Amino acid sequence: MKNDILLPVGGLVVVGVLAMSSATYAEPRQNSLAADVAVRHRRLLVKNRLELAPLFESTINADFRHVIGGGLKLEYHFTDKLSFGVIGVGSTSLNTKLVDKIIPSLITQADKDAMTKAGMMIREPSQDEFKDRLNTMPLHGAAYLSITPWYGKLAAFSQAYVAFDFYFQAGVAFASLKSNCPSNICNDPSPGQSHPDPAGGPEPIAPDGNPNNDAPLNSGSRVGLYLGGGIHVFLNDFLALDMTVRDYAFTDNPSGADFNADLFVSDADNRFLHHLFFGVGISVMLPTTVRRTP
Amino acid sequence: MTSTALAQSKAKPAKPAKGAKPAAPAKSPTPAKADDAGEIEITPDDAKKDGAAPPASGDPADEIEMGDEKPGDLGADLNAADPNAAAVKVTPIKKTPLSWQDIVVVIRKPFLKLRRVELLPFVGTTMNDNMVRHYTVGGELAYYLTDVLAVGVEGMYYAHSFREPFDLVARQARRLPTVNEYNWSAALDFHYVPVYGKFAVLDHSLVTWEAFFTAGIGAGQSQVVPRDTKFPGFTNTLIMPNVGASMRFFLSKWLTVSLGIRDYVFFDHFEPKGRSDEMYSTASDAKAHADGSLINNVMFQIGIGFWLPASFDYTTFR
Fold first, then answer.
1. Is A128 helix (H, G, I), strand (E, B) or coil?
2. Higher confidence at residue B281 or residue B30?
3. A217 falls within a domain
4. Domain end point (choices B45, B79, B102)
5. Alpha-carbon B73 to chain mean position
6. How far is CA A22 from CA A31, B49, B252, in A?
7. In Å, what is the CA distance from A112 to each residue of A115, A128, B13?
8. What gap in Å lies between CA B44 and CA B4, rounded to an integer?
9. Do B14 and B127 lie in a common domain?
10. How far apart are CA A229 and CA A288, in angstroms?
């Protein structure tokens, strides 16, 4: 009887010990390289360096006017992953293909004036009314924080071996917008509102219901959100090709026309719009010498 | 040299069998001879003499477990290619003459494409049309003739939505835009891969990638969106050459992610101006008097590539 109990108990103990020991044995031992950095003796191409980058920038898929310009990026890299920078770009504007197609299809201002005098109500804008209310962006820029989570090297045509990194930026955008509608075009004294009769009549004059002669209200300074992402391709220890896609998002009404269909132009026609740019520049890293990681 | 010497000193010194011939490296371009100038001969004794390595203890505790290599794991390949990782591999030491040509300074590619097929389902969107935005669902089947050159066929189905200026132009400028929508396209493509590289993510995991250029020729169909819906639209058959540049990120031996930009160039025909009940009212009449224009349809595409066979073997000396 005693043996009958001891046998299964002993068997269980043996199985338990074996199970424990096998579990211990199965516990994986860690590769000592597992917790190591991915790259040793890495050139610190950005850490504690000042980046100075003259650049060229152009809008991507603009609706009415392409914005093309040149500027400067100034960025200080606190670590090899974190940096702070500012960018400023001065630009000129070119009509898009859409604008070039619309303008010839519109009547001239002289024709419209003649038709209006003849008592006709013309709802479409004249060429000048359409063109003069489009705005431009002579100056824009941003202040931002940047992170560089990825870095590496590449081989091109099995000949050129260059280092690169990807970065992402977020910050505050600013822009100076400009529109120049002359007084003979934008001549509505009080868009969307009644106004006293200039001839001195007792009854106020009702709104004209014509947004084409209203001031465009799409000039001045704007502040908004900035997002960007790009790549440095290092040509040597202190020069890099810098390519970035940037989004300057702020309130704007690029056409300067009535957007919300209330038959007059007001600030309510401005809306939050994304202004996408592609930029390319040459970054100069200062100091020009680099250090290496252990 | 140092790392090799270290590696060998970690192992138990095992002398080669008497009279055994030195093993020549497989497929070495020049067979290594023991007395060749420029040869490197490493023996445990040499390492000891140089003091480059501590004596082998033979204690298993000094060994480093490299872990199980999972099939299809690119990270395992990268580790295996790391000279430091190789340094701790415990193998019996053989007296192996090496030549300078046998020393590899660049690790082998962790992903081979030679004679493999990539099946790439992808989605895409228009980048350069401010009136109508097209969305595509498509796929490509590519066969890699070499590791850098491939030929493939692709097909896409299009859907579209109108962008803000489409309504604005109609409402503000009183002009109805002339636009075409695209229905489908197909192409024969050639890919060339001149750039490959790797990058570290947050200083830890390594990801390998490559960049490739594409050129192709194909066909497609566009369809006129009538300005006045009472008139019928018509379709155009298009000859569509394309060029593009893309990046491919390797996730495993059979799985990749690709993203890129492709420019489809074609001559399209649009609804003629002045269409009315008296003029160009029928589809055939409108098509006969259609306005033509050269179009660059630039698209951003992103897809997941599945590779067959799912694995590969290296055929060259490491």
1. helix
2. B281
3. yes
4. B102
5. 17
6. 20, 42, 32
7. 5, 10, 100
8. 10
9. no
10. 24
Which of B174, B197, B211 is the closest to A123 by Cβ? B174
Q: Does A123 contact B at CB distance below 8 Å?
A: yes
* CB of A178 less than 8 A from some CB of B: no
Residue at A233 is within a domain:
yes
Lowest mean pLDDT among A27-41, A73-87, B76-90, B208-222: B76-90
Cα–Cα–Cα angle for B101, B102, B104, nearest 5°?
100
Residue B61 placed within a domain: yes
Segments forming the whole domain that contains residue B252: 117-308
In this predicted structure, the answer to whether residue B220 has a pLDDT above a threshold of 90 is: yes
Per-residue pLDDT, averaged over A125-143, amounts to 94
Query: Residue B19: pLDDT above 50?
Result: no
Q: How far apart are CA B82 and CA B74, in angstroms?
A: 13
For residue A99, being part of any structural domain is answered with yes
Distance (Å, whole) CA A97 – CA A268: 27
Q: Tell me: do B86 and B145 sit in the same domain.
A: no
Total structural domains in chain B?
A: 2
Give percent of chain A above pLDDT 70: 88
Is cis: bond before B309, omega within 30 of 0? yes
Name the domain boundary from B52, B79, B102: B102
The more confidently predicted of residues B275 and A172 is A172
CATH number of A189's domain: 2.40.160.20
Q: And the tokens for A231? A: 């790549």
Chain B interface mutation, best of A37, A102, A234, A276, highest count of B Cβ atoms under 10 Å: A102
- With cut-offs at 50, 70 and 90, classify the pLDDT of residue B107: low
Q: What is the rounded average pLDDT for all residues in chain B? A: 77
- Whether B187 and B291 share a structural domain: yes
Prediction ipTM score: 0.75
Q: Kindly report the nearest CA distance between residue A190 and chain B, in angstroms.
A: 20
Q: Are B155 and B270 found together in one domain?
A: yes
CATH number at residue B156: 2.40.160.20
> How would residue A7 be classed by pLDDT, with cut points 50, 70 and 90?
low
Predicted local distance difference test score (pLDDT) of residue A232? 94
Same domain, B144 and B278: yes
Check residue A160 and give its pLDDT. 83
Is A219 within a domain?
yes
pLDDT in tens, B121-171: 999 999 999 899 999 999 999 999 999 999 999 999 999 999 988 988 888
- Portion 117-136 of B in contact with A at CB < 8 A: 127-131
Q: Which residue has the tokens 């179009």?
A: B295
CA B300 → CA A256, B128, B257, B258, B263, distances in Å? 30, 10, 14, 11, 9
Q: What is the pLDDT of residues B231-269, one digit of tens each?
A: 999 999 999 999 999 999 999 999 999 999 999 999 999
Question: Considering its fold, how many domains does chain A have in total?
Answer: 1
Q: Which domain holds residue A106?
A: 51-292
Q: Residue A287: is the preceding peptide bond cis (ω within 30°)?
A: yes
pLDDT band at B62 (very low <50, low <70, confident <90, very high): very low
- Yes or no, beta carbons of A258 and B172 under 8 Å apart: yes
Report CB contact under 8 Å: A152, B205: no
Q: How many C-beta atoms surround the C-beta of residue B81 within 10 A?
A: 16
Look at residue B248 and tell me if it is in a domain.
yes
Residue A223 has pLDDT above 60, yes or no: yes
